[in-house]
Amino acid sequence: MTVSLGYLGSYAAVFALLVVGVAIVAGALFANRMLRPARPTPEKLATYECGVDPVGEGWAQSQVRYYVFTYLYVIFAVDAVFLFPWATVFAAPGFGMTTLVEMFVFLGFIALGILYGWRKRVLTWA
Length: 126
Known about the structure:
mainly alpha
């Protein structure tokens, strides 16, 4: 007697590979836990921060301008992410003028974000 699983049967191989992958990772983590030496000492349990012994409290404030640098990075990263696919589609037949106009609108928004950052003086290092 043969059972046909139909459309969902094609996912059986994917599910089986997922189960095998999880089993391999779990087995590796379990083997690591069983084979590693466990000798905790006060030096090993101390907080480690870039080779500097922790002194004082763990509270430190950071300046807001670092967040602005992060936002500017995101603007440039999003710009790059959209420019590469656009460059590959631009030469395809039927996409020329439409993609050109859309990209100029997109670059206009990016330019407004950069102009805002420049006007707020977050693009200076001083």
